[in-house]
Protein 1
Amino acid sequence: MKRLMLSCEQASFLIVKKEEKNLSVKERMLLWMHLSMCSLCKMFAIQNKFISDRLKHIHDVAETQSLSDAEKRELSESIK
Amino acid sequence: MSGTINNNILNPEKWIDNYADFLYNFICCRVNDKIHAKDIVQDIFLSAWKGKDQYKGEASEKSWLVSICKNKITDYYRKQAKELTQYLTEFENHNDYFDAEGSWDKVLMPKAWQVSADDSIENKELRKVLAECYKKLQQLQFAVFSMKYIDDMESDEICKVLDISSSNYWVLVHRAKLQLRACLEKNWFYK
């Protein structure tokens, strides 16, 4: 019986994979069984989705980077 | 018709003024290391200078430089991917998230998040915290995530570029998600 059960480590792995790939029938079944009795992994699934949704926009908040004048001078020296 | 008329010409003496910041920015979202980002900018201009006779003027000067830039970034990613075994051993040795049976660690296990209406996708403060967590990812994870989230690449494509197996790809992504989740929990939800 134990072999039929996923560990939380395996379950969370499948939760992450499921976002991009279709799981096999067996994987889906095992994950469903695990989630039906593991509240921590259920929470992980929700939080993982929360993060993924925000990662798509992560670069909107990235500050603009620029090189200093000194760095540019150095750069132009180095490629001469 | 013989020959095409191209209005695109190169102005190498203006490259640094016109494109250094733009390229540096382009690289900084994709390479989590400012020193390397600067090296890549230098490398682009060097390659462009050497290859300027091959420039046919089919693309604008800017897109020509961007295409060189993309190749340089890919080279950098591939170099990171060569260290894959090291990453995997490191993950193995510092598996703090699960115990020996693969159950959640008592400290790092997910805790309930009080998500308020404010924690919307638009919430800038939350995104800033997440961005800080994101910067803490290791180079190879950062590479994978920037291909995935900035350049919208599929996992199969990413594996091909990095020449890694799909199972190792999932190990990297799984680990990165565990790190981000724990970091966001600590610095936002349970601050």
Protein 2
Amino acid sequence: MSSEKAIAVQINGIGRELSAPANETLLDCLRRHGFFEVKSGCEKGDCGACAVQIDGEPVDSCLTLAWTVEGRSVTTLEGLNDTDNPHPLIAAFLEHGAVQCGYCTPGIMIAAEALLRETPEPSDDDIAIALSGNLCRCTGYTKIFAAIKQAGEVLRAGGNDD
Amino acid sequence: MTDQETSYRQAEANVVLRQVGKPLERTDAVGKATGRTRYAGDYTMPGMLHAKVLRSDIASGRLKRLDVSKARALPGVACVLTAEDLPDRLAATDMPGQTGQKRAATDRQILVREIIRHHGEPLALIAAETPALADKALDLIEYEIEPLPGVYDTASALEPDAPIVTEPDNVVGKYKIRKGDTEKGFAAADRIIENTFYTQFIEHAFLEPEVGLAWVDENGVVNIRMSTQVIEHFRFIADALGVPHNKVRILGAMVGGGFGGKEDITVELYLALLAQTTRRPVRLAYTREDSFVGHGKRHPFSVSHKTGVTEDGKITALEVTISADSGAYVFLSPYVLLYCAVAAPGPYRIDNVKIDAAAVATNNMYTSAFRGFGAAQACVAYEAQMDEIAKALDLDRFEFRRRNFMRTGDKTATGQTVESAIWADECMTKALDALGDKPADTGTVKIGRGVATYQQSYGRITWFHDTSEAWVGIEVDGTVIVRSGVTDIGAGQASALGQIAAELLGVGLDDVVIYNSDSAVTPLAGTTTATRALYMTGRAVHTASTNLRERLVAFAAQELDARPDEIDLANGQAFVPDDPSKSMSLKDLASRGASEGLERSELAMFRAPFTDPIDQETGQGPVFPDFTYGCHAVDVAVDTETGEVTVLKSVGAHDIGQAINPQAVEGQIEGGALMGQGYALSEELIYEEGKLVSPSFSEYLIPTSMDMPDIQCIILESRSGLGPFGAKGIGEPSLTPVAPAIANAVADAIGTRVFDLPITPEKVVQAIREAQR
Amino acid sequence: MLRDFELDMPADLQETLACLPGGTPLAGGTNLLVDLRARRESAERLVWLGNIDAFRDIKIEDGQAAIGGGTTVGDILRHPGMERAAPALVDCARVFGGQMVRNQATLAGNVCSGSPAADSVPPLLSLDAELCLASATQVRTIALDDFYTGFKKNRRSPDELVTGISWPVPGPNTANRFYKLARRKGDAITVVGVAVTVTRDGNTCTDARIALGAVAPTVFRAKEAEALIIGETLTEERVDEAAQKAKELSDPIDDLRASADYRRDMVQVLTRRLLNQAWQSLGEKEAGR
């Protein structure tokens, strides 16, 4: 058996200790510790359902070993869902009906949030390139694009507080 | 169709709507957008075991030896089951028999006893303390398979000496449709056009692989919480376990996509067997590879059309020959075949029709339900054929269609009169308008335009005698509860029911909570398949809500000293519109009613039209409750040197009767547009000697965000359907015309046709070269 | 599930190099973990490279671009200087995997995977990149063009790590382009990948590189095709000859994605197109002066 160790990590801003064997992926580790908003879709980096951010960069948690996030900051969709100040992506997805079965949604939000930080006013091309690793089988992406653009507008106008 | 249904249509024609028809935020949306919705794979139980399925990696063989002793001996392995442990158990593969119909004699072995018929056929089930131990146990199972000759295409399977996959002759389904006199029809034709069209094996590719958790409770009931379109498989699971039907309960969860792929039994049978054996909770989560090899696929079809037509573009006769690869087990193949045969002439009035259809067993993966269910494959053929005929006659493709469209009151090929609106023409006109001017070619990049119209049933085959139940109740604080077994596979099936109840009870959607998808607790609603959930369960909720409304209105009339016909319910109030003094909140009404013993709930059953099966020899008779009509139109750019196809604009125009939630309808059309694009251009499961060689999303290419065209939705509302408020269905219809529209656009761009899907860059280049020769 | 393995997490480069003999370097994991899970590869011990200081640094100075061994494809896409320093590599990065994979996959890892369909290799070859290889005992550089020895085989010895990749920044008279032909526009395995570099002085092509991906056991430079255009004016005929030669030099296989014949034909089409585009873009620049 691979040896097990505890790793210290910030998850959604809260310090946690997760125990994991060396061969465990971050995906399995997070889900084992109750972070069920991180979804498993293919376990090989093809679908993006398991996307989380590590120090703000979206990665596929299925292709990340849990040990390698020691000392880092991990963000899941729950981290964008601060009850006082939820990320505008959430409201925009709701308004545009960009959610159908919802299984790809957490990964898409994680990818889209990073896009909007880098490119506050994304073009269709920017969105297409940013989401090409997030498969969605229900929506045809159209409403997702519209929601991301709207969230960008809200952020540019100063976020939720204004 | 019954008189009752006709009067229902008329009654719905002039309703003023407050909740229905609005793009309301779906009741399931917040949970999903915040990641808090719990899917079936997100449930765990203390002490649960983890299951794995060992599968055959070859398609045709004899299991000569299966030794699980080392796996069983591994510490932490709770249970390993093989066929020896299940001596007389079988698994149903037929349509869910919730209406008490006799099930076809097509049951299959649960685990391989001796003969392996397809790649991925299960050999053994394992339950262990951890996923890692289950994996280890899987590696410890020793087996030996003697390869046997197999058949991997339908033509070979019909040869005299072909290996027999399904007794007696590999033919697992056959349909004939005979209308008019095709010989006479062809004699009256100026031209006869013949073509054959081919479709491929397709994967549903829902993002959530099959998953479930089963446990046996204190009453001995096997509970299974899982991702499924059909909780009513509980009966078949009970049969397989050898227990009474009331000892198996299936609880759904929000489903991470279905598209027909979670219509047949998947993990629930293995979970039930392992939980029954171990008496411990067992979880089974398919990997993506398990999912690729573990559930049935969309049938490849070959569809040959021979069409007689006059010079002025009137179709005089049609002969269609259909062959479907059913794979190694029957599953829903006969029904998929029937759908294809009935749909084969398209939305066109053709007096002389002869259709022969056969589904043939091979050692490929078994094929079963997939959004569009045979009718999609039919459309790939008939719409391509329409363009080919127009080209041969040098007629405008759209005008040629207009000369042949069915109109309301016309009969289908099986002699069924269509009483609802047939707006194929209107939809085509609007879709073409929305495309606007065709862009110009640039150098070697040629622009093509294509349309496809369609006729697609909603609701199940009428001789299944389909029913659906729902319960609607009002709490003493005026909030509303809907309970129905319907499974929500992502299209907003549950939320739509809430919107119907809200409309009829005068509350907002926020005031409604929907409990669904529990075979023991929620009234049984049937399957979320066949574009039937909104039609059937929507009608059940409509009836229950209407009955409850009538009772509330009668009570309010008493309380407000008014006549019942003066009372309206809206905005959480019961009131007399013309008299502001006469008004009370639903909360007061409900609590007053409760204290007076008013029944505050209603259980209703909706029954689809019931018919007898069609005539075996002629195929004549009604087959479906009704049909949806519409059109998809696209512009594509084809790089004639590389063969790459880019879909530029994609417009779906559909008469859906009445949109309950137009935003959800758009979601279906947009999703259908991209799924159909994958069907046309990039998706293909490749089997070599029956072995799937593309079991991942790196090889099986569903469209990504970078493949998305400009998609536009046009919703027409004839209010002529059989669903609630005159709704028709859109789940499957939104997909059906997309692939043929794209195929027609590519053909328009390059001046020649690729006859077999998917239209890969390489095939485009080949077709252009062949045409130049 | 991944089979058992040990995971070393060295703190810096020195420790990493000390761990390497007998260990398998793990960078982004986008190939290695997939192959381990599918049991196409096996490894007893992995060595995590993520703790190496400044491993993702990108330097563009004195006409030279240099990236650290841990530089990801996403880093290339985000770096403002890369559009000029490596146009083909940026073209490639946009269609390389999806966003998450781009943030994980390293250029060095992609190069070392040695797959003929490794997307970053044609651009890097077209830029005449060289690799810096370090072991506990020595540091050496090797031209990427000399790196591959066969299908998934290269000259890195097991105790070596690619610590950097560098290339000369193309001058204003040089155009550098890449095109990936695949069966889907986003996140797909390449059917044919072509990268070209053309340097133009007046009406003469003074230098050219043509790199071809997914059409031979390794990505390779079509040098005989390059020779047909260096020193020439890129007329339609010259370009056609070079494209024809590139096709002849290709030795692709039939697979699920395409036939060998189609791949060969596409080498010709894409080489011709990219050379024409590159040449004409430089002509436009000249005219615009």
